[in-house]
Amino acid sequence: QQDAVPACERFFVCNRVCPKGVQPGIAIKKIRDNWLIEK
User: Fold this and answer.
1) How many other β-carbons are positioned within 10 Å of the β-carbon of residue 29?
2) Phi, psi angles (nearest 5°) of residue 13
3) Is 33 helix (H, G, I), strand (E, B) or coil?
4) DSSP at 2
């Protein structure tokens, strides 16, 4: 499964465990969109 973020957490705000280099307070959806753009 490519999806590293569970669907239920897709729109949650990153505030506890964030991907490396990501600042807290960023919506996981936005982070994932950025990942998709980079690929």
Assistant:
1) 15
2) -85, 135
3) helix
4) -
Residue with tokens 């990501």: 22
DSSP state of 23: P
Q: Tokens 């964030």 identify what position? A: 18
**Which residues, 6+ apart, have CB-to-CB distance to 35 below 8 Å?**
none
- Express each pLDDT in 2-22 by its tens digit: 555 554 555 555 555 656 666
Handedness of CA 35, 10, 7, 4 (dihedral sign): positive
**Segments in the chain forming alpha helices (H):** 28-38
Q: What is the pTM of this model?
A: 0.28
